[in-house]
Write a structure and sequence with these properties.
Largest sheet: 8 strands, mixed
Bound molecules: iron/sulfur cluster
Number of domains: 2
CATH superfamily of the largest domain: P-loop containing nucleotide triphosphate hydrolases
Shape: globular
CATH class of the largest domain: Alpha Beta
Order of helices and strands: EEEHEEHEHHHHEHEHEEHHHEEH
Radius of gyration: 21 Å
Strand order of the largest sheet: 6-7-8-3-9-10-12-11
CATH architecture of the largest domain: 3-Layer(aba) Sandwich
Oligomer: single chain
Distance between the termini: 34 Å
Structural class: alpha/beta
């Protein structure tokens, strides 16, 4: 877990002012900086089209930034890949949203979990012993090894995907919608398991999710993206308690909350997220923002601090209202 002085330790992965432009005109990422510290659990939030997938691909070395830098333990990612591509692939793994589809349909689980050992040229016997231990640790039944992916439940398929990462002793796990499509009770079990594994193996998680209850439950820091930019970053507790960006507030207002006393007034955003080919002037959110003023369409807001560990890209952050009140 991130502690007060963790920021003194170099991040395991750092994006600095990263932009990704496709075909010279689609600005998928624009000046994004993100530091992932070892042992942290960071949430990444935003609608489809906000740049989350491009950020994950860039962070994993699956796409090159147009500008800016990506480093791994202080080393440029390109250099790390050139020096030890397989080692980096072992260390950083992605759990895809559709866990069943991400597993080869023609392979039994036994083959699926042993395959990474082969790819990474690791000793099979040691790996098999580790698989046996992890199988139990992940709560998978012994007969799961003989099943094909379509015979697994959604929760079991995710556990197999996690097992494939842990058998390689991966340290950083990027999880895309880890609980999508699961029943609420299975979601809870999986999140508890992920938290236990995080503590046990000192894992670092980047959790990408539309489900804000997942973000709230599991992450310690959250990053909100809109149209290729980070619009707010804060500790997850601060983000949920006092969102500073109107977009964050709108997202939180649609989050289902059981306790009626804790429900927020719903903020309806009109229109779709604009095209990254034709970006709005000034603040990119001004075409949908309930607080937009004339300045917003003209002047680009910069990311600025509004409290300890909380920064926002807005001329009129909601936290200003609290100071004025
Ligand atoms: S800068 Fe203006 S349009 Fe943009 S989020 Fe803030 S208030 Fe809304």
């Amino acid at each position: 877990m991130m502690t007060a002085d963790s920021s003194a330790i170099p991040p395991v992965i750092a994006l600095e002012d990263v932009s990704v432009v496709f075909g010279g005109k689609v600005r998928a990422l624009d000046g994004v900086s993100l530091h992932l510290h070892r042992g942290e659990i960071v949430g990444l939030v935003g609608e489809s089209g906000s740049g989350k997938s491009t950020l994950c691909r860039t962070l994993m070395g699956l796409g090159e930034p147009t500008s800016g830098t990506v480093t791994v333990d202080g080393e440029p990612l390109g250099a790390r890949l050139a020096r030890d591509r397989l080692g980096f692939r072992r260390e950083v793994q992605m759990l895809l949203q559709d866990a069943v589809a991400s597993l080869s349909p023609r392979m039994r689980v036994r083959k699926l979990v042993e395959e990474p050992l082969d790819v990474h040229r690791l000793p099979l016997e040691d790996g098999r012993a580790r698989i046996e231990v992890l199988l139990k640790r992940l709560g998978l039944p012994a007969n799961a090894m003989e099943k094909f992916p379509h015979q697994l439940s959604g929760g079991q398929a995710r556990r197999v995907a996690i097992l494939r990462a842990l058998v390689l002793r991966s340290q950083v796990i990027v999880a895309d919608e880890p609980t999508a499509g699961l029943d609420v009770s299975v979601q809870g079990e999986l999140l508890n398991l992920m938290l236990d594994l995080h503590a046990e193996f000192t894992l670092t998680y980047l959790i990408v999710s539309h489900n804000l209850n997942v973000i709230r439950r599991i992450t310690t820091r959250s990053v909100v993206m809109y149209l290729g930019q980070v619009v707010e970053e804060a500790s997850t507790a601060a983000l949920f308690r006092t969102p500073a960006h109107p977009y964050t507030a709108a997202l939180l207002s649609t989050n289902p909350v059981v306790d009626p006393a804790k429900r927020r007034k719903r903020i309806v955003l009109h229109g779709e997220i604009p095209s990254p080919i034709n970006l709005p002037s000034g603040c990119r959110f001004h075409t949908r923002c309930p607080r937009a003023a004339a300045r917003c369409a003209q002047e680009v807001p910069q990311l600025r601090s509004v409290g300890e560990g909380q920064s926002v890209r807005c001329h009129f952050p909601l936290t200003d209202d609290m100071v004025a009140a």
